[in-house]
């Protein structure tokens, strides 16, 4: 069985899907990614689907599930590289990909995740900063 590699870049995991995903490989990716989030303490996941010609309803649900599981594990997910035909198919299938953020490319996804981390840090002062030190 093929496995999709999960690469770590800082506190972000990058998944570039370069093979057609069968159901078993998709489920294995979901498990591998969850394990890597816990192992590395990653706060972001970028999934590049630019090589996928087709995203069926199972893969669409799998992307939603990965985003939901990642969120529970304190990591935000951004899917990048969606082809227009894939987006149209997902809409036609009625799949809204709840909880899945999208970006046009990896650079934009990294920017989204970096902005999220900055926003989460706003208003959090250490005791020394709060005392005016």
Outline:
The protein is an alpha/beta fold. The chain is built from 5 helices and 5 strands.
Task: Please tell me about this protein's structure.
The chain has about 130 residues and is of the alpha/beta class. The protein is about 45% helix and about 15% strand. The protein is built from 5 helices and 5 strands; from the N terminus they run ββαβαβαβαα. It has helices at about 25-40, 55-70, 85-90, 105-120, 125-130; strands at about 5-10, 10-15, 45-50, 75-80, 100-105. A 5-stranded mixed β-sheet has the order 1-2-3-4-5, sandwiched between helices. α3 (about 85-90) links the parallel β4 (about 75-80) and β5. α1 (about 25-40) packs parallel to α2. The longest helix is centred in the first third of the chain and has 18 residues, at about 25-40. Residues about 120-130 have low confidence and may be disordered.
Helices and strands, with pairings:
Elements: E1 6-9, E2 12-16, H1 23-40, E3 44-48, H2 57-72, E4 76-80, H3 84-92, E5 101-103, H4 106-121, H5 127-130
Parallel strand pairs: 2-3, 3-4, 4-5
Antiparallel strand pairs: 1-2
Question: Which structural traits does this protein have?
Answer:
17% strand; globular; 133 residues; alpha/beta
The strand count comes to 5
User: Taking strands numbered 1, 2, ... along the chain, how are they ordered across the largest sheet?
Assistant: 1-2-3-4-5
Low-confidence stretches: 122-131
Q: How much of the polypeptide forms β-strand, as a percent range? A: 15-25%
Rg from Cα: 16 Å
Number of alpha- plus pi-helical segments: 5
Structural class by SSE content: alpha/beta
Distance between the termini: 57 Å
Helix content: 40-55%
So what's the overall shape? globular
- Order of helical and strand elements: EEHEHEHEHH
In this structure, how is the largest beta sheet organized? 5 strands, mixed
Mean pLDDT rating? 85
């Amino acid at each position: 069985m093929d496995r999709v590699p999960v690469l770590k870049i800082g506190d972000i995991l990058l998944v570039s899907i370069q093979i057609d995903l069968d159901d078993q490989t998709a489920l294995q990716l979901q498990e591998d990614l969850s394990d890597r989030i816990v192992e590395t303490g990653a706060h972001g996941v970028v999934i590049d689907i630019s090589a996928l010609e087709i995203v069926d309803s199972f893969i669409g649900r799998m992307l939603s599930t990965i985003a939901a599981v990642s969120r529970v594990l304190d990591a935000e997910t951004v899917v990048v590289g969606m082809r227009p035909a894939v987006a149209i198919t997902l809409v036609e299938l009625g799949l809204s990909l709840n909880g899945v953020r999208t970006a046009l490319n990896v650079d934009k996804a990294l920017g989204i995740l970096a902005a999220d981390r900055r926003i989460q840090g706003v208003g959090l002062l250490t005791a020394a900063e709060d005392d005016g030190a």
